Amino acid sequence: MNNIDKIVLAYSGGLDTSVILKWLQQAYDAEVVTFTADLGQGEELEPARRKARMLGIRDIYIEDLREEFVRDFVFPMFRANAVYEGQYLLGTSIARPLIAKRLVEIAHETGADAIAHGATGKGNDQVRFELSAYALDPHIRVIAPWREWDLNSRATLVDFARLNQIPVARDKVGEAPFSVDANLLHVSSEGKILEDPGCEAPAYVYQRTVHPEQAPDTPQYVSIEFEGGDAVAVDGQDLSPATLLARLNELGGQHGIGRLDLVENRFVGMKSRGIYETPGGTILLEAHRGVEQITLDRGAAHLKDELMPKYAELIYNGFWYSPERNMLQALIDESQKHVSGRVTVKLYKGSVRTVGRESENSLYSEKHVTFEDDAGAFDQQDAAGFIRLNALRLRLLGMRRARTNRRMP
User: Fold this and answer.
1) Domain ranges in the chain?
2) Strands (E), 42-198
3) Among the CATH numbers 2.80.10.50, 3.30.450.20, 1.10.10.1100, 3.40.50.620, which is that of 6-66+87-176?
4) pTM score of the predicted model
5) CA distance 409 to 399
6) Cβ contacts of residue 155 below 8 Å, gap of 6+?
7) 181-296+338-358 belongs to which CATH class?
8) Which of 102, 154, 226, 237 is 20 to 30 A from residue 293's alpha carbon, by CA?
9) In this predicted model, what pLDDT tens digit does every residue of 145-190 receive, in sequence order?
10) Which residues are known to be catalytic?
C-alpha cells in the first residue's frame, strides 16, 4: 500500500463505491479522484458530485460518454451481430472497456498512481476492467477493494458507512432485492431474489419494457436506415448514434421487446442467472441482419457467422483491446462497406421481425429467383452438372461401401 499517493476511482455515488472511496482514503492514505460516466443509465449524476464533495474529493470527473459509447463500442459490436451464448447482447460487457479507458486517461491527466473499481472477486467485471487497463497502460496499478478488505456483506458495508458518516439511503439498509447495472444499451438485474434459476423473475424486476401481454394490440412498423453497417436514421429522421439507440429503446420498451432470462457461463468459471432488457439493441440486431441479407455475399455472411461467437466471447471475457479482437474487427468492418439500405421491422407484443428490406447495393435478383419466366437469366440445365460434381465424392464413398460390404463374411 506504499508508494500510492493518488487513486482514480470509478464512482457511482452509491453505497458500495462510497464505502470504497472512504476505505481507499484510510487504507492507502491517498488522495482519491472520482470518475463517474454517463453511459445512458438514466440516473441523475449530480448527487454523485455532491456526495464526492462531501467526502472530501477535490478532483471530480463526471462525463457524458453516451455518443462515444454507442459510436465507438456498441455500433462496432453490432456490425458483427455479436451475441454471447446465443442470446446475450453483451450490454454490460461492452461498457467496461470505455470506463477503463477513461480511468487510465484520467490517471495520466492527474498524475495518479493507480485506478480502482468496485467489481467483486466473483464476477466478470473485474477481469474486463483490469485487462482493458493493462492493455492501455501496462504499468498501471489497479486496486480492487473487494479482493482486499474484510467487508464481505451488505450489513458490514452499512456499518462502515455509518461509522464513517457516509449517508446511507433508507432502502439500502435492508437487503437489496437484486443488483442492477444499466446503460444506454441495456439493463441487467442479478443476485438475491434472482439467484434461484428455477423461479420466475418478479414483474417489478423489469424497468425498461412493458410486459409483452400488456403491450399494444396493434403492431407498429418502423424503418431503420443503415450506412456502412451502422444505423443512421429511424422513420426517415437522421439521428446521432446515442439518440438513435435511445429512440429504439423507447419503441422497443413500449412493445415489450428485448427481455431475456439467462443462465450464462461467467469467465471466472461459475454460472450466473441474469435478467436482461435490451429493447433497442434487439431491434437493431434484427434490422442489421435484415439489411445484410440482401447486401452481403454468401461467403462473407457465412464467414461472419462462423467468427461471431469468438468475437462475442472476446468481448464478454474482457479482451476488447486485444490484437485478435482488432483483427476480427478489421475483417468485420471490411464486410460492411456495402451494408447500406433501409429495413422495415414489425414490433408486436415482445417480438421484432424484419418484413421488408431494400438497398442500392442489393445482391438480390428477382429475375434469377422468380418462379415465372426469367427471360433466360438462369439456365436450369446448369444445375445438373453442379449436382453431379458435388455428388462425385459421395458416389465414390458409396461404391467403396458396397465393395466392402460384399467382401464381409
Assistant:
1) 6-66+87-176, 181-296+338-358, 369-403
2) 60-64, 114-116, 141-143, 179-182, 187-190
3) 3.40.50.620
4) 0.93
5) 18
6) none
7) alpha beta
8) 237
9) 999 999 988 789 999 999 999 987 655 545 556 788 999 999 999 9
10) 16, 96, 125, 179
